[in-house]
Specification:
This is IclR-ED domain-containing protein. Keywords: DNA-binding, Transcription, Transcription regulation. GO terms for molecular function: DNA binding; DNA-binding transcription factor activity. The structure is a single chain. The protein is α+β, with helices and mostly antiparallel strands. Strand 1 and strand 2 form a beta hairpin. It has 2 domains: about 60 residues, Winged helix-like DNA-binding domain superfamily/Winged helix DNA-binding domain (Arc Repressor Mutant, subunit A, Orthogonal Bundle), CATH 1.10.10; about 180 residues, 2-Layer Sandwich (Beta-Lactamase). The protein is globular, with a radius of gyration of 19 Å.
Length: about 250
Amino acid sequence: MSQPSSFLQGLTLIDAVVQRERSRRLAHNASRLSEATGIERSRVSRLTHELRELGFLERDPAAVFNTGDAYFRTAGVLNQPWLRAARSELRRLATGLGMSAQIAAASGAGALLLRSETPGDLLASYLHPGMTTPIWCTGAGRALLWEFSSAELEDLLGGVQFVGVGGPGAARSTAGVEALLVRDRARGIVIAEEEYAEGVFEYALPIHDGACVVASIAVAGRQLSARRSREAQSALADVQSRLVALASRAD
C-alpha cells in the first residue's frame, strides 16, 4: 500500500488540531499530535513547520498547536455561496472548452487551489484541490495579484526563489512579475503562456467581492487557435461576471 501524501497528512494534522480545539481540551504538542494521528514524530515536526509557515497552524510558547489565520480565511472562502455555485460553472467551462477550470485563493506567495474541474485527456490533469502553486507563475495566481502595488509585490515576493521555478515563460524577478501584470491589466485578462509548465497555457481573471480580490478563476490547457482563444476568454469572463455578482452580494 502506498504511503499517504504530505497533503493528506497535513490535512490530518490540521483536522486533529481543529477537533482538539472544539473539544476545549488542552491543545496537542508535536508528540501528542503524532500519537493522535499515527504520523511519525519527525514527520509531524516537518509538516507542522510547513503548516506554520503557510499560516494554517500556530504554536504558542508552551509548544502546543492551534489553527492559524490562513485556516480561517480559507474556511471562510469555502463557505461562501459564490464558491458553492462555482462548481457547476467550472464543470461547464471544462466540458465546453476542453480545458481545466479552477478557482484559487491567495496563501502567502502561493495560490491555493479551492476547486477544479478537468475533462479527460488534459495537460493540466495534475491539478487537485488543496495543492499550492507559486502565485507569480500561474495564471490563477497572477490574477490574485491584480490590485497589488509595486511595494506590495516587493513585500510578498522579495524573498522568493525565482530561479528554477516554473516553465520557460515564467518571470524571474519581482520586476518581471510586475511587467506581466501591467500587460495583463491592459488586456483586461491574465494570459500565462507556459509559465508554470511547458505546454500549458492559462487564462485567468480575479474575483472581487466589492471590497477586494478574494479569489481567481482560470482555465488551462494546450495552446489554442486565435478563434478558440477568444471563445475561452469570453466564456471565462461570463462566468467571472456571475461569480463576482454573487460574491458582491455576500454578507
